[in-house]
Amino acid sequence: MNRRTFLSYYNPTAMEYFTELGYTGLFIAAFLSATILPLGSVVVLAPLLLSGLSPSMLVVVATIGNVLGSMTNYALGYWASLSLIKKWLRMSEEEFVRAEQHFKKYGIIALLFTWLPFIGDPLTVLAGILRIRLHWFVVLVTVGKAARYIIASYLILKVG
């Protein structure tokens, strides 16, 4: 699939399609947005919350999908070659070394911030490369991503 065809899936019509799928669409959007794909799951979460679906269930579904997507990145970091990962993340050797130093400086607590745009996905890949213990990875990533969805849901319902 070429880049143009691939990116054509991530337009407002695709987001509406995910929304129409309800919980399943949110799971798919959350899973994909946790990878390096250009997708935001909160764009699907918001209309589902406002449609009256269970906020608790939406938070659980989004968190599970997002954590499983992050685990996919972890697996890629764990098993893929370093040169492939650098190419995939579009990182130079210098950028990679800097990212690795930052990760080592802050330790596994950095995994609480995997929900942040731009740095979250590389953090999950880097955790795999550095062979962070999987149970710590899952716990910390889950806490961070669940907190993000809880706060986002609260704000959407409060403002919405």
UniProtKB/TrEMBL annotation:
<dbReference type="InterPro" id="IPR051311">
    <property type="entry name" value="DedA_domain"/>
</dbReference>
<feature type="transmembrane region" description="Helical">
    <location>
        <begin position="136"/>
        <end position="157"/>
    </location>
</feature>
<keyword id="KW-0812">Transmembrane</keyword>
<keyword id="KW-1133">Transmembrane helix</keyword>
<protein>
    <submittedName>
        <fullName>YqaA family protein</fullName>
    </submittedName>
</protein>
<feature type="domain" description="VTT">
    <location>
        <begin position="46"/>
        <end position="156"/>
    </location>
</feature>
<feature type="transmembrane region" description="Helical">
    <location>
        <begin position="106"/>
        <end position="130"/>
    </location>
</feature>
<feature type="transmembrane region" description="Helical">
    <location>
        <begin position="56"/>
        <end position="85"/>
    </location>
</feature>
<feature type="transmembrane region" description="Helical">
    <location>
        <begin position="21"/>
        <end position="50"/>
    </location>
</feature>
<dbReference type="Pfam" id="PF09335">
    <property type="entry name" value="VTT_dom"/>
</dbReference>
<dbReference type="InterPro" id="IPR032816">
    <property type="entry name" value="VTT_dom"/>
</dbReference>
<keyword id="KW-0472">Membrane</keyword>
